User: Which sequence fits this backbone?
């Protein structure tokens, strides 16, 4: 076994997996890589060949019996009815329906939007209400004849998110000291499935720059280059907290829907990728204008209120000419839609431009057979500290760093409550406005008042 593999399996035992196993299992299974690695991390995180073979059999059996293909949804529902109970791996979304005064779960591949879900799961995993999570679910069939309102025979008994159960950041930092900078760079590259020996140091760094929006809030990135270089792969496969848009979208979908009072994608996901930046040309001017404002400060205005999000923005586009021709005849932003490429204010908001023409088209020999981190393990390390679950943050800051209060907290608190908020950080100045807030909101959303940005940050992280 090569020295770096030996060191990785010894120092990070249970948190690394052989990356060629992912490709073996991925063939024929339309499952995101982070889900496969979660299973491989449970059963194949070892250097013992016999144990790996046994673990692979378990993983393949688990996927074949527990993962439902969308076109087999009716068959799966019938099977649960016949068996009475079954374990599934699926994406779970939860929404609150006021007509029923009840939370309903939707199992995406299972094809059912009305599944009973215990309330305590919503308190433990707030992302169920914010776009959903991939999870291992025990589902039961039991028809309740006495139920009032909407009836459904499916009940969730157990829900285990696809994530590392426990993670010690200090231990991770201490283990990092066992690796040189070059070794660490190679280990991170293998984590995303690439073999570092195939690339010079600059190329390694460019591949890792693609990952920055996945671990930094409000980071704006552009990559323009030839087709087939894997520009959008990470946003489709490597994280449960990102979304890849493959066509035009709207202001309501991307930012905030004023008709329904629901937050858009920037408030739900941690990174949003535009698979083809040219699609912006097909969108309304309002989308681009709002996106330009959002890319500057992470905030935007809809109706009477200023709203904010943390999602990073990554825009990918294809070049149809050699870079020498682009430089000679125009400039390096030419592949961008004309609504953006001449807008210097928009271009100034981009933090990094990846020169995609320097990156090679993906070939089989570029993929690694060595050990790398289980994706969800390294993602936990990068995220460092979680904001309190179900937290809504209101207010704004001036350019001098002073807290700016809201005209009225009633409407944003109502929107937050409808989307699952259980507590809210509110500027101290708005305390006197709470007479205008309905009793229902006050009962369900706990206000936490703050008077300076540092105190707000500490309260958001649960450090006070």
Assistant:
């Amino acid at each position: 076994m090569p020295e770096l593999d030996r060191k990785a399996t010894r120092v990070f035992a249970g948190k690394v997996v052989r990356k060629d196993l992912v490709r073996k299992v991925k063939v024929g299974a339309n499952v995101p890589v982070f889900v496969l690695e979660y299973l491989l991390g449970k059963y194949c995180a070892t250097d013992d060949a016999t144990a790996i073979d046994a673990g692979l059999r378990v993983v393949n059996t688990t996927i074949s019996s527990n993962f439902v293909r969308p076109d087999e949804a009716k068959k799966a529902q019938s099977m649960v009815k016949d068996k009475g109970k079954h374990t599934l791996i699926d994406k779970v979304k939860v929404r609150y329906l006021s007509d029923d005064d009840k939370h309903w779960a939707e199992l995406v591949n299972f094809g059912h939007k009305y599944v009973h879900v215990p309330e305590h799961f919503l308190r433990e995993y707030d992302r169920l209400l914010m776009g959903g999570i991939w999870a291992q679910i025990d589902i039961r069939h039991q028809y309740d004849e006495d139920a009032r309102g909407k009836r459904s025979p499916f009940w969730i008994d157990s829900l285990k998110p696809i994530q590392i159960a426990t993670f010690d950041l200090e231990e991770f930092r201490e283990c990092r000291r066992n690796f040189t900078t070059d070794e660490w760079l190679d280990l991170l590259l293998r984590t995303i499935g690439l073999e570092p020996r195939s690339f010079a140091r600059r190329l390694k760094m460019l591949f890792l720059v693609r990952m920055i929006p996945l671990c930094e809030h409000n980071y704006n990135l552009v990559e323009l280059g030839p087709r087939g270089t894997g520009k959008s792969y990470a946003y489709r496969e490597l994280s449960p907290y990102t979304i890849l848009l493959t066509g035009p979208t709207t202001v309501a979908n991307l930012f905030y829907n004023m008709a329904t009072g629901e937050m858009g994608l920037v408030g739900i996901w941690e990174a949003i990728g535009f698979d083809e930046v040219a699609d912006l040309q097909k969108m309304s001017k309002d989308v681009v204008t709002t996106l330009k404002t959002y890319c500057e400060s992470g905030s935007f205005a809809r109706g009477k209120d200023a709203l904010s999000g943390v999602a990073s923005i990554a825009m990918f586009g294809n070049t149809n000419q050699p870079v020498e021709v682009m430089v000679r005849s125009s400039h390096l932003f030419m592949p961008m839609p004309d609504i953006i490429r001449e807008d210097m204010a928009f271009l100034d908001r981009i933090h990094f431009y990846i020169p995609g023409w320097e990156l090679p088209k993906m070939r089989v020999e570029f993929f690694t057979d060595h050990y790398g981190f289980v994706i969800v393990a390294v993602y936990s390390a990068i995220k460092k500290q979680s904001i309190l679950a179900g937290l809504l943050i209101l207010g704004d800051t001036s350019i001098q760093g002073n807290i700016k209060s809201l005209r009225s907290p009633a409407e944003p608190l109502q929107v937050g409550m409808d989307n699952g908020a259980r507590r809210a950080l509110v500027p101290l100045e708005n305390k006197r406005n709470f007479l205008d807030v309905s009793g229902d909101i006050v009962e369900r959303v706990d206000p936490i008042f703050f008077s300076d940005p540092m105190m707000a940050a500490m309260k958001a992280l649960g450090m006070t």
Summary: The mean pLDDT is 82. The radius of gyration is 24 Å. The longest helix spans residues 49-66. The first strand starts at residue 16 and ends at 18.
